[in-house]
Design goal:
The structure is a homotrimer. By secondary structure, chain A is α/β, with parallel strands linked by helices. Chain A contains twelve helices and 19 strands. In chain A, about 50% of the residues are buried.
Chain lengths: ~425, ~425, ~425
């Protein structure tokens, strides 16, 4: 069995950040070569399966859209100066823009421009997946500087039948019970949302691939938001009952010092208790939020036709940091150390998932004689009982077939790891029998 | 279906208050012509049935008492000056006093006098329904001024076999499920307790009589307190299971800025949740109180042989304003605007009762594609999601046959009306089916 | 039926304290003549059965240990001065020390000495039940004064096959349902822990022996901690289902002004609610603690093979007063008045246990007519309803077969005694029928 180890933070944090640097320049969308290129890079880390669903495929109430690709895009003034250029930032193009090549007056152009007046130095991230149109995003300061006159707008994009692409990795454990880890890969050059989630998920998968004796199978999804999870659910509808725990990962690299966990729709699923207990054991500040049907793909996994036990794990929640969905969500916004901490916590969640077993106390009538088994201090007196001793007493007292180690940790207020160690010692002393 | 409308407060408040003015001078009791006259005035507003139960009728553990009527009452001093006169205030007579015509010394008279030493300018309201005696109520200042000497006391009342009278109105809806609205009519010239409840109930009945498509039937009772509700329960014992929701109305016209709702004995009946959710949606301060078996007729409806879902709706609770059961609970104590607000809130309760339906999401697997149905904003980006959008997502997520619109409003924290509008839009788009 | 009476505190407190004075000098342990002598003194108060279990008897996972007795023990310096003498304090010997008679250097002696450096004037209480060794306990100041040189150490003890002794008293009531009162008798000269528990238990037993009509049977155990309760459980395994309520008594004589109740493992057993309601009714400050599997014999009674409804009743909890398990837990530490208060509270718990009945309202439809039965004030008006009146209304309202008097007291916030009196009055008026 594997054990929680002290994370070598420097090395791992560095590797987590390096993947962000590699993925940052790519212009992704919900379809197209950006996602493909991203997934191929991830394949260098883990043996990802890449799936392609053709445009027009029906997935529940939805249809796989046309595939979008883009080569070039700019706005030139009448002097031929490129004022806005996709090559400088792929946020400059309204994501999913149809092609255009036209000269027009400023007044007409303005109908296609998107800015953030309150954050005049930042380029917004905007999309138009479900209405065919074109547009540019720019800083409000750039917008203000536009002079009257004619402008040449050029977008060399294609919106044509093709495919939607997503990545999937199943790490098989000794049972068919699954843990789902899902993260969205559709955002262009935005780091916290969601290159952070991608990098943490890939490194968590790497970590699990090295384990020999996983009890659960772990399924990782690297999917476009919304359409990706809906498509995956439609393809895998028959098998979702295998999913016993699940997490959506996002916004895991910012410097916020409070972790945020959004509960599954059930609200008291095992994953909810496991994550909350892990946070409670950590020194980290954290906040628990109730489920609401707005957010990332947990809203699909938690739709009423599925109601899977899937929560959302973040640092600062999406929409609550000013850099969200702007050009300021860049590499500078990310703290490698924060990425490492996020990964470390997820490993601790995995530890709890793997080791949250139930045991039967084999000597349930009175306490067993711990002294003769070397499990009790031998001189009684005034000194406080130690945590490890209390953990042993709690595990014995609650190992009645109705309480898991997680339940015992929660009721006793002792860390899961100490409770697990007590259970191991008691099992070794033939005082406990593993139940399930 | 009817909709909540902005109440024309001025007009309605004026009409509510005018009925108080008309009813104020009448000397009511639990039996007698005062109640009869009151109910006949109410018949000018709504088609009330008037029931008469003869003295001696057994109703559960009780017996309908003798009927009490009074013409005149006074105390004269030895000079023949009328110091106390029933014509000036019908509170001056101990309600249910037997007749008397006697000259007596002050010392003997004092045994029959009731005052409020702490509120020396006010006449108390006192009753003696279950012991045959006579008495006068007066201000403590009047009492102090009484000089030694003989007094002539005269009460021209009758306490004889007759009837107990009460009013009942059933407004039939499309189902036999009933909403009970009960208010007591036995108090003499006291405004907040309970001409306010009577006026609000009558106007609520008027409002409902104009509705074409009520789902529930609404039963209004205008009854003497305690004996009235016990008598009604005894007469209607077989049918009380039709009562799905109920409210006792009282003290609805004072200037207190906090509404008070006292829960039914069950404590978590639908009516409790409906009223509390309505108060939560309002801007009004409010206080929720647990059931206790003291108060108005809810104590009979909530007795252990019935345990009906009946709460008590008030502004300032009875007994907690200094004017309670004194001559200061007069027309000046009443705010017409407050009466209007109380009525307006009850209409909102009715709105919730009528529209608290459950729906089935017809596309429960993942979210349906709202964009193609015009139910979703088309450019994604940074802007906050609107309440109406969140309402749609919540209704879809929780329309699984286990949640009513009220449940959804409570869990989401969104107003009932916004939730209802979302459900209407989704039903219109064939995404929801009405269940019950 | 018996009633709560005002306790004659002076007399009873004096008697409670006198027993502590009598028992204080005795050197007790988990076996041996100290316990025997203690139990024989208790037999002068109540007709205790004294049980003896032979060394080697198997009791669940444990074995009855050898019997320990001690005559004399001292440390002399090379001048022959007795520096440490068991006759001055029986805490000076490590409890369960094997015999020794040896001269040794200070360095070797030090390995057998126990002190409290943070409380340099106090002798610690130390035991070694499960490892055969010898030792002395002394004040840290005595320890510091020891000079280099040789010392003669002498312990005239025996650790041989013999018996473990405990006391038991069953006071039979009219049913076989039992209340268990357990207290440990194994500590040497320590007053609060646990001569206080012993004295209070004996006097509670005396009190109950005088009652004629107890509904419950009361079983008192005076046992060595841990091994005593395990042994008793092993001997009485078949009968423990008769135990409906139970309390372990300890630390009942200190001057702490806050009572402490540690809940049973169930947490919501009747005994938990009964004790908490009693504390709530009292003017005493109190603290409720959740069960944890560390403490006194409640940990055995609440082991997963039994899960009996047994809580722990204390003033200041063990381990939380600085005198705990030191020579300062002496007679000066005890307040006779506190002993009296503790006993008085336990009598109130017994009162609740005996009288926590359920009744059926025989007139459940509406309120019965209380006025005609003299159970209602006869002039209605403004005055507040009295507690006794409210108690009558609550008992009527909740006597539906689902609520006990304890439930009614808890829901109404009225004292148990007032609720009981209301039930008595209503039963006398044929409005209630005793159910169970």
């Amino acid at each position: 069995m594997f054990q929680e180890k002290l994370l070598n933070k420097d090395t791992e944090a560095t590797r987590l950040f390096a993947l962000l640097e590699e993925l940052y320049p790519i212009c992704r969308s919900i379809t197209g070569d950006g996602v493909r290129k991203t997934l191929r890079i991830l394949q260098e880390y883990v043996p990802l399966d890449i799936h392609e669903l053709p445009t027009g495929t029906e997935v529940f109430d939805w249809t796989i859209p046309k595939e979008w690709n883009i080569q070039e895009a700019w706005i030139k003034n009448s002097n031929g100066d490129k004022l806005i250029d996709f090559r400088r930032s792929n946020l400059h193009v309204l994501n999913y823009s149809i092609p255009v090549d036209k000269v027009m007056a400023l007044s007409e152009l303005k109908e296609h421009l998107h800015t953030l007046p309150d954050q005049p130095d930042l380029i917004p991230h905007k999309t138009s997946y479900f209405k065919e149109q074109w547009g540019f995003c720019l800083t409000h300061n750039q917008f203000i500087d536009l002079e009257e006159g004619n402008y040449h707008v050029f977008i060399d994009s294609t919106l044509e039948d093709g495919h939607m692409t997503y990545g999937e990795l199943l790490i098989k454990g000794t049972t068919s019970d699954e843990v789902l880890i899902s993260t969205h890969v559709c955002h262009p050059s935005l780091c916290n949302d969601n290159l952070s989630g991608i990098s943490v998920a890939v490194h968590l998968a790497q970590y699990l691939l090295k384990k020999q004796d996983l009890r659960y199978s772990y399924r990782f999804l690297f999917i476009p938001a919304t359409i990706g999870s809906i498509a995956w659910l439609a393809q895998n509808e028959k098998n979702v009952d295998d999913i016993k725990h699940g997490l959506v990962l996002s916004c895991l690299g910012d410097r916020g010092d409070t972790m945020t966990y959004k509960r599954s729709r059930k609200g008291n699923a095992s994953i909810d208790k496991l994550v909350e207990q892990m946070l409670d054991d950590s020194d980290q500040a954290y906040e628990i939020r109730e489920f609401l049907p707005y957010g990332y793909d947990e809203r699909q996994f938690c739709s009423p036709g599925f109601v899977l036990p899937v929560g959302l794990f973040m640092r600062t929640p999406f929409g609550e940091f000013p850099e969200y969905h702007t050009s300021a969500d860049n590499l500078n916004f990310i703290d490698a150390e924060a990425l490492g901490e996020s990964l470390s916590m997820l490993k601790k969640v995995v530890y709890r998932i793997e080791h949250n077993r139930s045991y039967q106390n084999l000597k349930p009538k009175g306490e067993p004689n711990l002294g003769k088994r070397g499990l009790y201090k031998l001189i009684g007196g005034k000194t406080d009982v130690e945590i490890s001793q209390m953990a042993i007493l709690w595990v014995l007292n609650l190992s009645d077939g109705k309480h898991s180690l997680l339940d015992i940790a929660r009721r006793s207020g002792i860390t899961f790891q100490a409770i697990k160690q007590a259970a191991d010692a008691l099992e070794h002393a033939n005082l406990l029998k593993l139940l399930s």
